[in-house]
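Predict the holo structure. Ligand: glycine.
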Amino acid sequence: MYQEYLNRRKKLFAQMAPESATLIFAAAENNKNFDYNFQYRQDKNFFYFTGFNEPQALFILIKRHNNNQCIIFNQKKNTNNKQWFGSNLGQKSALKKLYVNYSYTWNDIENRLYLILNYLHVVYYAIGLNEKYDKIFFLTLEKLRLKSKKNKKFCAPKRILDWRLFVYKMRLIKSKQEIYFIQKACDISILAHIRAIKFCQPKRYEYELVAEIHHEFLRNGCLTNSYNTIVGSGENSCILHYTKNNKKMKNGELVLIDAGCEYCNYTSDITRTIPVNGIFLKEQRIIYHIVLDMLNLALKLFKPNIKIKIINIQVIQLLLSKLKSIGLINGTINQLMHTKIYKKFFMHRLCHWIGLSVHDCEYMPCNDNTILKPGMTLAVEPGIYIPKNNNIPFLYRGIGIRIEENIVITSKGNKIFTQNLIKTPNEIEKLMRKPI
Ligand code: GLY
Ligand code: MN
Ligand code: MN
């Protein structure tokens, strides 16, 4: 596995200017209450180059005199009190396990960082991610500037550039190993969805489905979700990021389940919408089939060298013609495209990147002009959310349906990570008839 991290470092070195350094901090801990922190989540960029999951660490790539070196500042062995928090890596093991040339203690940053950056031309740093780390960075540069005024042995870098553009571009194309981790995350999330679908029935609470889902995540070794689990029944199915999950589910309602776990830090992001009592009503089934048709069309179109715009247009044209055919909108397709009326029913994007983060590589656009390439991984998530207003026929009001699949672009088309999770109304009804 470590070869992966070394390959990534090599690729980044190749893009760095001569006489430069890249600085990437680990995520800071977040305080929950007084002396207690939230569960720690590593910064995904830091992880991408190190595979290291401890806080209070700074990873540095240095390109000097055509010689590439890696340095880590990390916590001193057991400074964090082994009795209370268990053991940590320390400096000696960091050299072997993280394949770095030097390992210094976190508390040594002030004394050493300015020397490491001395006489370099360029520093790559992502400003604004963390105030405390920005302060360390700018104080270090200031120290070097002040010293250089008095002593020719010192000179501060003149240019600061952001590493995010390089790094996100790299993260956009996944390796075989990364694709394997995403598949594992999807496989476990599929088990969780099946468990929740089977457990669902009227008079149970939304959070009872959350419990089933998280149970399956945890028993499979996934201690973290990719995002806060969404279980929205009835009108809550129309709230895109609904996370209260505390309503009693009623006979005749739909429930939208959007849940995914992380496996080895890689995410999955799956949505299914099911009838609470196991049988779709006529209007629910009609809308469901429109969303399913949108999804199936999109899945046919996701392939290399196609612009996302082309896919979006075709999927939205399909949506418009179907909504027209059931009388929810009127006008010609051209007019309707122009007025963007579909946004009243489908107000989010059709797709987004997935990977180490659920909305991965936020610096790399996943929009109309993006051209797809093999190795890109995406969530594809058409949906229809029907407002409760008087212009809408009564039985359609408040229906919210989303179906979300995860895919990887291959050389010929795409592979669906979530293929094994049922999604037609008949399959869902059949599964819900089975005893738990
Ligand atoms: N669950 C977040 C999303 O679907 O984008
Ligand atoms: Mn989702
Ligand atoms: Mn999504």
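The pocket of manganese (II) ion (ligand 3) is lined by residues 269, 352, 379, 381, 404 (CB under 6 Å). Residues 176-199 form the longest helix (24 residues).
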